[in-house]
Design brief:
The protein has three domains: 169 residues, no CATH class; 128 residues, CBS-domain (Roll); 83 residues, Uridine Diphospho-n-acetylenolpyruvylglucosamine Reductase, domain 3, CATH 3.30.465. The protein contains 16 helices and 14 strands. The longest helix is centred in the first third of the chain and has 30 residues. It is elongated.
C-alpha cells in the first residue's frame, strides 16, 4: 500500500543543516525574483527620486541600472542557480525525514515542493516588490552588487549568446514597408488620430523632402538690401520666427534671419545693418528622405532648410515642424489661426483643394494609393502641376478634366496661377 512514513531514526544534525541551507537558498531565490520586477518596473518619477536622493543605496540602484543587460543576466543566472540548488537541498531534506512508497515520492517532490517553491520563491516576492519597487531596489542593491561580480563569467556568456540570437532573430524577422503598412491598416486603434499617427510613422522613412516642403511660391523672404523698417514690418505681418534672405531672387539665398537675434536691436534706426545677424543657410536636395533630414537638424541644431533641385535652384523650404507634422499631425499655434487648410470636404466625395497641395497629400486625402496618378503626373509635384500635365497647356478658370475616376474643375485662378480646384471622386 502506498504511504508516507516518518523515519524512526532521523539525523537531527543533517536535517538542521539541510533546513538552514534551504532557508538561505529560498531567501536568495525570493531576492532574485523580486529584484527582477522591482528594478525593471521603476518609472521615470522613481528614477528622478533616486537621482535626487543622496544616500548610498540609491546610488547603487542607479549604478546597477546603468547596464541593464548585465543586471538582468546577473538576476537570471543567480535565480536559476539558486533554484536548482534549492530543489536538490529540499529533496535531500525531505529524504532525511520521510520514507515514501509508490507514487507518493513523485507527488511530494514534484507537486508539493514545486508549489511551495513557486509560492514563496517566485510569486510572493514579485507581488511585494511590485508594490514598493523603490524600497525593494534599495534593499537588495548591495547583495546584487556582489552577485554582479560573482556571477559575471556566466552572465557574460548569457549576454553574448542572447545578443547573437537577438541579431539573428531581427535579421530573419525583417518585413517590407508595404507589409507593415498593410498591418497598420488592419490594426484597430482607439481613434482616427491614432491610426493616422501609426500610418505616419510607417511612411516616415519613405517620404521625400519635396513631398512636404513649402513650395517656392509660398516662401516669404526678405531682400538683402531691405531697410530695417521693412524687415520689422514683414516680421510683424507674417509672424515667422525664421525668414530666408535673398539677393537677386530666391535662387540666391544668402542667409536666414532669426527674429530672436533682432530682439536686442529692436529700437535701432532704419539704417541699422541687420544683415550682420544673418545665419548661414542650410541647403538640402529635394529628394532627400525626411528621416535623414531630421537627423541632420538634430546634429546641426537647426530648424529650417532651403530645398534645391539638381541645378541648385530653390524649390521650396522645409522646417522641423513640417517633419514632425508627418507623424503627429497638424501643429498649430497663434500664427496659424487664420491660415487656410489645404483642402476642405464639402460633400460625401467632393472636395475643394488648394492647388499647391502636394500630389502625395492629395491622393491620401481622397483615399487613393500613393502612385495612383504616376502614369499621368509626369514631373508634376503639386495638384496644379497635375492639372497642367492633364491639359498639356496653360489652364484657365472653368477647365474640367477627368482621370482615374476623379473629376477636376478649376474653380479660381490667381492671375496665371491656379488657386482652388474642385474635386469629385466617383463612388
Amino acid at each position: 500500500m502506498d504511504a508516507i512514513i516518518v523515519k524512526e531514526s532521523i539525523d537531527i544534525a543533517g536535517v538542521a543543516i539541510y533546513a538552514l541551507i534551504s532557508l538561505v537558498l529560498l531567501m536568495l531565490s525570493a531576492m532574485a525574483s523580486g529584484s527582477e520586477v522591482a528594478f525593471f518596473s521603476l518609472t521615470r518619477s522613481d528614477l528622478e527620486e533616486l537621482e535626487e536622493s543622496s544616500d548610498i543605496a540609491s546610488g547603487r540602484v542607479l549604478d546597477l541600472l546603468s547596464n541593464p543587460d548585465r543586471l538582468l543576466a546577473t538576476i537570471l543566472v543567480t535565480n536559476n542557480m539558486v533554484n536548482i540548488c534549492l530543489v536538490i537541498t529540499v529533496t535531500q531534506l525531505v529524504g532525511e525525514i520521510f520514507s515514501f512508497s509508490g507514487v507518493w515520492e513523485f507527488v511530494f517532490n514534484t507537486v508539493i515542493i514545486t508549489f511551495l517553491l513557486l509560492l514563496f520563491g517566485e510569486i510572493m516576492p514579485k507581488v511585494i516588490s511590485q508594490s514598493k519597487p523603490v524600497k525593494f531596489s534599495r534593499l537588495i542593491s548591495l547583495p546584487l552588487k556582489f552577485l554582479r561580480w560573482f556571477v559575471y563569467p556566466l552572465a557574460f556568456i548569457l549576454m553574448r549568446t542572447s545578443s547573437k540570437v537577438s541579431r539573428l532573430a531581427t535579421r530573419n524577422a525583417e518585413i517590407s514597408i508595404e507589409e507593415l503598412a498593410d498591418a497598420v491598416d488592419l490594426t484597430e486603434t482607439g481613434s482616427e488620430e491614432e491610426q493616422k499617427m501609426l500610418s505616419g510613422i510607417v511612411a516616415f522613412g519613405q517620404t521625400e523632402v519635396v513631398e512636404i516642403m513649402h513650395s517656392r511660391v509660398d516662401i516669404t523672404g526678405l531682400e538683402y538690401e531691405a531697410s530695417y523698417d521693412e524687415v520689422r514690418k514683414i516680421i510683424v505681418e507674417t509672424g515667422y520666427s525664421r525668414i530666408p534672405v535673398y539677393g537677386d531672387d530666391l535662387d540666391d539665398v544668402r542667409g536666414v534671419l532669426y527674429v530672436k537675434d533682432l530682439l536686442p536691436y529692436i529700437g535701432e534706426s532704419s539704417n541699422f545693418e541687420w544683415q550682420k545677424l544673418l545665419r548661414k543657410p542650410y541647403f538640402v536636395h529635394e529628394h532627400m528622405m525626411i528621416d535623414d533630414l531630421l537627423k541632420k537638424f538634430q546634429k546641426k541644431k537647426i530648424h529650417i532648410a532651403i530645398v534645391v533641385d539638381e541645378y541648385g535652384a530653390t524649390q521650396g523650404l522645409i522646417s522641423l515642424e513640417d517633419i514632425l507634422e508627418e507623424v503627429v499631425g497638424e501643429i498649430t499655434d497663434e500664427s496659424d489661426e487664420d491660415e487656410d487648410k489645404l483642402y476642405e470636404k464639402i460633400g460625401e466625395r467632393t472636395y475643394i483643394f488648394d492647388a499647391k497641395i502636394h500630389i502625395g497629400e492629395f491622393v491620401r486625402a481622397i483615399g487613393y494609393d500613393e502612385d495612383a496618378f504616376s502614369d499621368v503626373e509626369g514631373h508634376a509635384e503639386t495638384l496644379a502641376g497635375l492639372m497642367m500635365e492633364l491639359k498639356r497647356d496653360l489652364p484657365r478658370r472653368g477647365d474640367e478634366f477627368q482621370s482615374h475616376g476623379v473629376k477636376f474643375f478649376i474653380a479660381t485662378m490667381d492671375g496665371r496661377r491656379i488657386d482652388k480646384i474642385k474635386v469629385e471622386v466617383d463612388g
